[in-house]
Design goal:
Order of helices and strands: EHEHEHEHEHHEHHHE
Low-confidence stretches: none
Organism: Paenibacillus lemnae
Strand content: 5-15%
CATH architecture: 3-Layer(aba) Sandwich
Radius of gyration: 17 Å
Family: Belongs to the short-chain dehydrogenases/reductases (SDR) family.
Keywords: Coiled coil, Oxidoreductase
InterPro entries: NAD(P)-bd_dom_sf, SDR_fam
Strand order of the largest sheet: 3-2-1-4-5-6-7
Largest sheet: 7 strands, parallel
Number of domains: 1
Helix content: 40-55%
Mean pLDDT: 97
Pfam families: adh_short_C2
CATH class: Alpha Beta
CATH superfamily: NAD(P)-binding Rossmann-like Domain
Length: 254
């Protein structure tokens, strides 16, 4: 049993980032043509496009501000013009980075940025791409959440607020569009090892790993594996799910 995405078109926001680039590669390896979204990492996006082109897949890069409806709609038009169609698979992976601190010290602008890049990104992507999924009676709408949504550790408040708001959008959307053959799911990574960690030699953290039942940090490839699964027909009856990929560090209860 293989993950077969041949004939599918997939959009990954933040596709040139640490986790996004592995999602792009994995979706392409499964046969999908891919759209690599970026906001400011043009050189990295171009490098990844050249890499994916070597696989024979169709690929484009597109710049957009995912916190702006106008910009997302412009991205939609660029994709339509380039491919002559819109993606069956969207992965909302991009998020604004900021410095974590306590609620009392956190800049209110950080809460706004997290709301815009978690909640509103998802809303804008839905408005841009779900109507075409409804028309074709098929679609995969995937969001990258976080284990932090259940941890609620000190210093996480803006991030947690944005991701918990995002969770609400996905659960409601799943009920609204399920009748059209569209699945809506979230992947919730733990503290994940990426290329940055490999370059810095920081793959391990004893205190964190001690809390993980599987005894280690997950990898970017393991996150991408779950995304590819949810994008495929193997997950055709899975929707409305928040799926931790964190080695058991969090365990949603019934």
């Amino acid at each position: 049993m293989n993950i077969d995405l041949n004939g599918k078109l997939a959009l990954v926001t933040g596709g040139a980032g640490q986790l996004g680039r592995v999602m792009v590669r994995s979706l392409a390896e499964c046969g999908a043509d891919v759209i690599i979204h970026y906001r400011s990492s043009a050189a990295k996006a171009e490098e990844l496009r050249n890499e994916v082109k070597q696989t024979g897949n169709k690929v484009m890069i597109v710049q957009a501000d995912i916190a702006s409806l106008e910009s997302v709609m412009q991205m939609k038009e660029q994709i339509q013009s380039h491919f002559g169609r819109l993606p069956e698979i969207t992965v909302a992976n991009a998020v604004e980075q900021y410095e974590w601190t306590s609620v009392l010290e956190q800049d209110p602008k950080d809460y706004q940025s997290q709301f815009e890049t978690c909640v509103m990104q998802s809303v804008y992507l839905a408005k841009a791409f779900v109507p075409a999924m409804v028309e074709r009676k098929y679609g995969r709408f995937i969001g990258i959440n976080t284990e932090c949504s259940m941890q609620n550790h000190p210093g996480q408040s803006a991030y947690v607020a944005g991701k918990r708001g995002m969770d609400g959008v996905y659960r409601v959307l799943a009920k609204e569009v399920g009748e059209h053959g569209i699945t809506v799911n979230q992947v919730a990574p733990g503290w994940t090892v990426s290329d940055r960690d490999r370059d810095q030699g920081s793959e391990h953290n004893a205190s964190y790993e001690a809390s993980v039942p599987l005894g280690r940090r997950g990898t970017d490839q393991e996150i991408a594996n779950m995304v590819a699964f949810l994008a495929s027909d193997l997950a055709s009856f899975t929707t409305g799910a928040y799926i931790p990929v964190c080695g058991g560090n969090i365990m949603p209860a019934i």
